[in-house]
Amino acid sequence: MHRTKNIVFLFFFCYSITFLTSEINAQQDWQQKVNPELMKLLDNGAEAEFLIMMKEQADLSATRVLQSKNEKARYVFNQLQTTSKRSQQKLLDKLALQQVKHKSFYIVNAIFAKGNLELVQEIAMMDEVRRIADNPHAKLEMPIAAPATQNRNAAEWGITMMQADQVWDLGFTGEDVVIGGQDTGFDWEHPALKDSYRGWFGFGEIHDYNWHDAIRELSPLHNDPDITDESQNPCGFSSPEPCDDGSHGTHTMGTMVGLDGENQIGVAPGATWIACRNMDRGYGSPATYIECFEWFLAPTDLNDENPDPEMAPHVINNSWGCPEMEGCNPDNWAMMEQAVMNLKTSGVVVVVSAGNSGSGCGSVSNPSAIFEPSFSIGATSATDQIANFSSRGPVTVDGSGRMKPNVSAPGVGVRSCVPGNGYSSFSGTSMAGPHVAGMVALIISANPNLAGQVDAIEDIIEQTSVAKTSSQDCGDINGSETPNNTYGYGRVDALAAVEMALNMSTNTSDLDKTYYSLKIYPNPIVDEMNVYLSGYNGDATFSLFNASGQILKTAQWNLGTFDQQTVSVSQLPQGVYFYRLVNGEKISEGKVVKE
Fold first, then answer.
1. Pick the catalytic residue: 365, 376, 390, 430?
2. Considering 183, 187, 244, 260, which one is annotated as catalytic?
3. How many domains does the chain have?
4. What's the whole-model pTM score?
5. Residue 93 annotated to the active site
6. Residue 7: C-alpha distances to residues 4, 12, 17, 236 (Å)
């Protein structure tokens, strides 16, 4: 009996020690999930906005075997929504019970919330949560004003430089293609934009599924002396119709679709447009950017209900950035990159301005331009040379060393529309990106079978660009080579791209062309690396090395044409690693960074 009591006592003693140890570890581990900058913001009982990224992320690999854009969009939407509803419910119930301000996202399986350190700790201790990042507000990098130009009864210089006007002569102006823009907002009643707005029917307007406002309150960063009324945005908040609280968004949309009599400012005047406001007078945040990405994946009515992925655009333009110096960091980068990747997977081309931080190497440094799935655009001048301000690659801020920009386009002295029925000229990569978004519309209007085939469209644009070289060597790429980190593949040529697209339409096998691609996502990686593979078939060996060439991990895969594999790296220390995939005679190599 005595012996039995001792055994029972020893059991409960060991159990208690184990329980207490796990409790202590849990209390210590929660801090590892929280961004250090957020911890500073929460000092002394303060509240702050933050983003909660869930551990579970949807598997979208099956999308690669789907052909039509609508099939892809529906599948991705359903997979993302199912995953987020399943994994977020416990946390959403907790936030609702505590009456915490929050918003659920499915495009990246994350939740935006606002609260204090006690709430953050409580959330971080949940097994379902992977990471909690801050939600900094960043200031839009404004374009450079250029000398005003008069109305002209001809296409703007950028349009003729890229030969888009010659595409019009072939009968393709972007008809039946929808372009999206997320920016400072848009003056939908400007005469250059009204007729091409998808919500305008000539006798009335319907803004459901055509407009979304992600701005619901004043940005906390507003200390601009030029803003005289800090209590109210010129457009208000949650505006029920498109409105531009600056001029940036209207100008970019004009370059994509604008046409007003003799003002031939748009690359694709036959396309229609929809839009999302992601900034309050130039101030945005990862949460507002992600909200717009999500709305473009499946636009909603004005009550933010009844999402419909078949109403998604074919291409979206992003002439904004989120610099690290203003608070954006790898924690919230990862969520934005996931959003870009998932939107691209659904069949939407994501065009992004490279930034105006040139002319030094490694100056492509802000999201979303730095991301692998973003199609990043540098700026060129009327003399067909790279603009001095245009940011250069390689991307060094995340350690990836990836080449950027992808291509370059006209971006100096670009004339387009501004609110109030006016016209102005600006310079910046913000002006270059819209040229490429419009060009995507021309390509799809010439060959509708390319809708949703994002890799094929991007490949067409890159392969048909006018090769441009530079005396500047950036990273491991010599400026005399093509592509390079100054121009990317070169300055875009709309006519050559459309001709290639038309040739593909006469040979349907071209549309099924396999584009060999291996992409590691995310990069930098945290606990596991997702390997997206396209074009590989059969037995393959994947190896991961350290800088000394020592093999740390190997995996044997039997690959289909489109595949996704996952490799756990949670046990590896932070640092730079190298991978190699051997599939028959095909060998693919690259570099990843472990945070």
1. 430
2. 183
3. 4
4. 0.85
5. no
6. 5, 9, 15, 70
